[in-house]
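dumping this here before i forget
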Amino acid sequence: MTKIKKAIIFLGDIFILYGALALTLILRYGISYFNESFNSHLKPFSIIFIIWLLLFYLADFYKEKYLRINLENIQIFVLIIVISVISSVLLFYLFPLFFKLTPKTNLVIFALIFGVLDLGWRFILSKIYISRGFKNRLLIIGDSPAIKEVIDYLKNNPQLGYEVGGQTTNLLSIENYQFDTIIIQPSFRKEPEFIKTIYRLLPNKINIIDFITFYESIFQKIPLNELDESWFIEKITTRRHLYDLIKRIADIILSLFLGITLLPLVFIIAILTKLSPRKGPVIYQQERVGINNKIFTLYKFGTMQFDKGPLWTKEKDNRLTSLGKILRYSHLDEIPQLYNIFKGDMSFIGPRAERKELVELYSQLPYYEIRHIIKPGLTGWAQVNYKPSASLEEAKEKLQYDIYYIKNRSLVLDLLILIKTIKYLFINH
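structure:
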């Protein structure tokens, strides 16, 4: 990115910082007290703004790739904001005599307003640059179905700001292409010819991105056929202690709250199920495979004729009872799983817990066992991005989303999945 573009982003950030401060003070104190409150906040917040801008600069957030609004960039952006807020709190409370302010509510409101406005600013700017022909020219080194998928997708989605300048497997021909960024399959990275060529191109400040990383950023899933075991050793962590603790506490509180709140509805569904012509218990129990391949009993309201049915999920299933169709459509049949979440068998967010028979079938898929290193969930990244699987090929597609979640799991991603789930239930369903 040119210095002029970086300067435009930087100046925009400054404008948004002061604009967000002004909006915060108007919301808190009203227009009539704006001048007084703005004058008292101007000097201390100006010092804080220098810290914020410095943190953005140190995080390389003025590079072109951070103009694109995707999950990875949003996570980095949120992290910078959190660090900036913590730094601001420390300064305000360590030096109260100098700042003469110890804002709490104002700082939180300001951070939220700034976050929304600044993301919007970067999104608009990226659209302007793309519309005027400022595109990142790519040279893709390698050849596979996944690479063809990426090339076709980028050609059909020019708004992403990428232009495929070429594709080759001939490392000696790299210098014949015009490009800003090299996307390379991992198998080519250690080739002596590639290393020598890249060394010669260093003065041109060429970006080099691993193909798996690029594919992941475009599709928010992992290309299974491009992986080997070393990728999992490097990228997958089984424990994230603080995240796991926060998530478990949230699971307990939310499952308990929803369980109590939905208790009247549970009784109504139970009575209707008992009165229906369906044979079998009101609560259907089924063995599922959980974390570390541990078998647990999953609870659901009975929706089908008892003890019938194939393994695969069907969109229109004639095994469903009349009440069962309503429960399935509304997902109310899954309310009893709140007990599974409270017990710790499941979490609200995670890969879907499958039956033992399906797990045995899916074990034909490469790296399928990785799904079981974390708890299964009531909803998950695969569920909000792909339809229920009705074949091995579709199960493989969902597995790519599951592995993406396992690699990138975080509170931000969990919140995004929750929002997508709510949107699906009440808008898209």
